Amino acid sequence: MQREGSRVKKEVCSCLRARLVESLIQSTQDLQVSPVVKYSALSLFANRFYPSLIGAGTKDAKSWLLQPLRKSNLQLFVLVAIWISSKIYDSFSLSVKYFKSLANNTIKEQHFTTKDFLKAELVLMQVLKFEIGMLSIPFCFFEDLLTKFSEVARVGKQLSFGEEEMTF
């Protein structure tokens, strides 16, 4: 009986994780962040933060964001993971106001303040023991380069098109 209960819990966790990952990807599209920000946020949240909450549990957590662990709070942590990634990889990181605005539109169960975002950032960092290095996502750099080369190629094609018209 206990084995069946743990199986059901794992299915619920994996289903919730999938919805949160979808939310992360949709949020990165709405915010129009670069691929490296998207994938590093995915790594921070889905591969590191979320499993540490589910595996070890949050019994010792002192933050109201983790006790009890709600879907709306996890959605906040999704946005915070994107925010942290933006701070790491973008020359001009997105303001917390963009994330708060997005949260107001996407998280219906709870309203979060700017102060809540700052607190969630600290909690996420504490759960990860401040280890936010992104060495596990080198393919992100290649995709970012590919995107930049595609843009350069597109501009080059437009420029060469202009030259063809001028050639007699």
From TrEMBL:
Gene3D superfamilies: Cyclin-like
SUPFAM superfamilies named in the record: Cyclin-like
Highest taxon listed in the record's lineage: Eukaryota
Domain Cyclin N-terminal: 14-132
Alphabetical list of Pfam families matching this protein: Cyclin_N
Protein name: Cyclin N-terminal domain-containing protein
Source organism per UniProt: Solanum verrucosum
